[in-house]
């Protein structure tokens, strides 16, 4: 098959990579998106009150680590169960309906009761697309790279609430980020301490000691001073 990559920028958001794959033999195809930037400093949660058909056409970027929810139906798409997509709110609902319908023929043959409940739920999802009554659409992304379009940008959108938050250690671990176990003032402790480790003299290769000290230079930044003294040949060196 053929994979196509497109680097594009979404207005008032950021750059993303759109990946599309298609196979001429079996006609299978799929598309996904990846952020072209890094994981953000904070997570983000978009809460949208959907009240019209126009809201269903809002552009949505949902990364693979984002969770999508519709509280009115107690419906949730958990994180890491789908690839990242560039779609609309209607597209996310259509994708959920397609996923639920996929195994329905087998369920009807093996468990009629469960299949009937899923058919009923699929009907509720399809009714949402008509927006006969308002509902809430929530995307929660600890990586901070998901997005819900504001058609009034750069003006404020009263129907859309954007909340940034500090991710938990559990969320950071799921994203593959290392959680720093050191206390925030660890650097302060190093400033008052001279560290010493064993090394070899660069001149005579005899065992020697290297001293290391972290120093804060006023109005500049932190530097590390390293000094090596050799008792065998008297060689001395230091560097910053």
UniProtKB/TrEMBL annotation:
<dbReference type="Pfam" id="PF03367">
    <property type="entry name" value="Zn_ribbon_ZPR1"/>
</dbReference>
<comment type="similarity">
    <text>Belongs to the ZPR1 family.</text>
</comment>
<dbReference type="InterPro" id="IPR004457">
    <property type="entry name" value="Znf_ZPR1"/>
</dbReference>
<feature type="domain" description="Zinc finger ZPR1-type">
    <location>
        <begin position="1"/>
        <end position="150"/>
    </location>
</feature>
<dbReference type="InterPro" id="IPR042452">
    <property type="entry name" value="ZPR1_Znf1/2"/>
</dbReference>
<keyword id="KW-0863">Zinc-finger</keyword>
<dbReference type="GO" id="GO:0008270">
    <property type="term" value="F:zinc ion binding"/>
</dbReference>
<keyword id="KW-0479">Metal-binding</keyword>
<keyword id="KW-0862">Zinc</keyword>
<dbReference type="InterPro" id="IPR040141">
    <property type="entry name" value="ZPR1"/>
</dbReference>
<dbReference type="Pfam" id="PF22794">
    <property type="entry name" value="jr-ZPR1"/>
</dbReference>
<dbReference type="InterPro" id="IPR042451">
    <property type="entry name" value="ZPR1_A/B_dom"/>
</dbReference>
<keyword id="KW-0539">Nucleus</keyword>
<dbReference type="GO" id="GO:0005634">
    <property type="term" value="C:nucleus"/>
</dbReference>
<protein>
    <submittedName>
        <fullName>ZPR1 protein</fullName>
    </submittedName>
</protein>
<dbReference type="InterPro" id="IPR056180">
    <property type="entry name" value="ZPR1_jr_dom"/>
</dbReference>
């Amino acid at each position: 098959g053929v994979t196509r990559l497109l680097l594009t920028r979404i207005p008032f958001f950021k750059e993303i990579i759109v990946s599309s794959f298609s196979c001429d033999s079996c006609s299978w195809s799929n598309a996904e998106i990846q952020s072209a930037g890094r994981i953000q400093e904070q997570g983000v949660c978009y809460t949208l009150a959907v009240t019209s058909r126009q809201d269903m056409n809002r552009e949505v970027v949902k990364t693979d680590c984002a969770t999508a929810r519709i509280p009115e139906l107690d419906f949730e798409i958990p994180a890491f169960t789908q690839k990242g997509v560039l779609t609309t709110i209607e597209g996310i609902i259509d994708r959920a309906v397609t996923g639920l319908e996929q195994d329905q023929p087998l369920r009807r043959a093996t468990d009629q009761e469960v299949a009937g409940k899923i058919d009923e739920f699929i009907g509720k999802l399809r009714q949402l697309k008509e927006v006969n009554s308002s509902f809430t659409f929530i995307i929660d992304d600890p990586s901070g790279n998901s997005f819900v379009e504001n058609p009034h940008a750069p003006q404020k959108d009263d129907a859309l609430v954007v909340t940034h938050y500090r991710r938990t250690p559990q969320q950071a671990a799921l994203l593959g980020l290392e959680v720093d176990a050191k206390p925030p003032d660890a650097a302060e402790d190093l400033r008052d301490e001279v560290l010493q480790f064993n090394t070899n003299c660069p001149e005579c290769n005899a065992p020697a000691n290297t001293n290391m000290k972290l120093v804060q230079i006023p109005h500049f930044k932190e530097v590390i001073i390293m000094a090596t003294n050799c008792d065998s040949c008297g060689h001395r060196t230091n560097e910053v």
